[in-house]
Amino acid sequence: MPEEQRDEVDRIVASWNRERPDLDFEPLHVLSRVGRLAKHLDRERRAAFTASNLESWEFDVLSALRRAGSPYALSPKALLTQTLVSSGTMTNRIDRLVGRGLVARNTDPSDGRGILVSLTDDGRSAADAAITRLVEAERSLLGDLSPADRETLAGLLRSLSLTLGA
Questions:
Q1: Is residue 103 within 8 Å of residue 117, measured between CB atoms?
Q2: For the sheet containing 73-74, what is the strand order?
Q3: 26-51 and 56-67 are packed helices; what angle lies between their axes, rounded to 10 degrees?
Q4: 153: alpha, beta or left, given left = phi > 0 and alpha = psi -120 to 50?
Q5: Mean pLDDT taken over the chain
Q6: Domain boundaries, the chain
Q7: Could you tell me which CATH class the domain 55-141 is placed in?
Q8: Coil vs helix vs strand at 2
Q9: Residue 104: φ, ψ to 5°
Q10: How far apart are CA 108 and CA 103, in angstroms?
Q11: pTM, whole model, 2 decimals?
Q12: What's the CA gap between 66 and 44, in Å, rounded?
């Protein structure tokens, strides 16, 4: 492979192959790149959320509510399922979002003992602004790939994700 087409992972794997020829470093070619790309993605996501005056955890909750569709309300249990956090963590997050005026707690009309967490107008605006910035940032990260390459990559990553149960 010409030097201009080699990246840092190629150089790392070549060094390991030289030092440990007894090991097969093929997984590093894929997963080291995924890890490095994840760092770029994390930076872009943090920037998109910061520009929207949100923390990433705030966006996780707000986006779950926004994706739920009108009336943009879910039970705390449904939010737990979508955001993969503990009950205590979710309670704390809801409290903080209520304090910022981004969500409200309401009695569930179908179960007077239950609670629904709903987006306020400010919460919906914040979620919409953040997702717009996020999509633009992520499109920029993929900008040098053709639509066909993006589709192929998405399919391969989907297959790996399904295999891992992620």
A1: yes
A2: 73-74, 111-119, 103-108
A3: 80
A4: alpha
A5: 93
A6: 1-51, 55-141
A7: mainly alpha
A8: coil
A9: -130, 150
A10: 15
A11: 0.82
A12: 21
